[in-house]
Fold this sequence. Notes:
The chain is an alpha/beta fold. Helix content is 43%, strand content 16%. It has 2 domains: 19-282, 3-Layer(aba) Sandwich (Rossmann fold), CATH 3.40.50; 304-405, Four Helix Bundle (Hemerythrin (Met), subunit A) (Up-down Bundle), CATH 1.20.120. The longest helix has 19 residues, at 53-71. The mean pLDDT is 96.
Amino acid sequence: MHAWPASEVPALPGQGRDLRIHDTATGGLITSAPGSVARIYVCGITPYDATHIGHAATYNAFDLVQRVWLDTKRQVHYVQNVTDVDDPLLERADRDGLDWAELAERETALFREDMTALRMLPPRQYIGAVEAIPGIVPLVERLRDLGATYELDGDVYFSVESDPHFGQVSNLDAAAMRLLSAERGGDPDRPGKKNPVDPMLWMAAREGEPSWDGGSLGRGRPGWHIECVAIALDHLGMGFDVQGGGSDLVFPHHEMGASHAQALTGEFPMAKAYVHAGMVALHGEKMSKSKGNLVFVSQLRRDGVDPAAIRLALLAHHYRADWEWTDQVLQDAVTRLGHWRAAVSRPDGPPAEALVEEIREALANDLDAPAALAAVDRWTVLQEESGGTDTGAPGVVSRAVDALLGVAL
Length: 409
């Protein structure tokens, strides 16, 4: 599966700062100081509807992570998956009378278009669950050989008790885990399970549903969590720098993925930092495909909204915050974009070197994009009120905003 084209990231004078970022597992800020190549895995979409503003906010957060790393003169190895076979996708295809594979392909293509328009940096590897199955089966077999699995009516489950570090990503108690498992794709009430939250690794073939050759596992399809583990371990290995996604993935997805990987390798941790973006609401409720209260990036683009304004609307909120999308949020972003573009279109302006350092410092401080935007706003006000004599300043600001914030002026 191919990703989307990369937009050029301008080189800036000087060098950025190491990123201090909130780690869900420890509950505090850590300094991410990778080697010459920073490794990041971000969980991708299940392509039955793409791309709503909640998705865009999440991928914007991890785009900023990459931009901070690039500004420190590191390379970035970014991997993302596509869950192109799963119950929600099959249910939507059945509801709409569509072939599930065609639905997945159509929505994935639309996601690529939206990511391109929003200037999100693409992953080096963009891997679908279906194409990853040949690598998933051996991992499930290996977990079985290690005694970390059990079978229930032909389905293969992972025993969370096999990982001594289970629970150290989310730090939730058993009751909370069980509740979230039921809400987020698990089956805690299925009779015969050793632990209610044990996740499925391999689902035996069901009549009328797609299935693949699972070798000694029999025909079936992979569970959700092992998909990401197989892809991450194959391309990044253990101990990569950031595991990213929305806050709704903390449990069970990232907790289970970490335990799968740790049981497989005997190493800890799977990722050095678990980083999660907040949720976006509409009309008082979290945007959700199941609720249907979605604002789609593609529809905003069809309505003539500049993608740069969409991106500024996302940047106006701290990535870890839960916030609400409104018409005013978008209008404020459109207004800000107009001011910024007018400011950099002038032949000269106030000195910009200090501004670049303010943006760098804000982003290095747990991706404080609102503070970075406020710094650019202050420079813009100076430009509007009194101008300046530095002929290079507008160009410096334009390149900095593009390189660090992903907004093309």
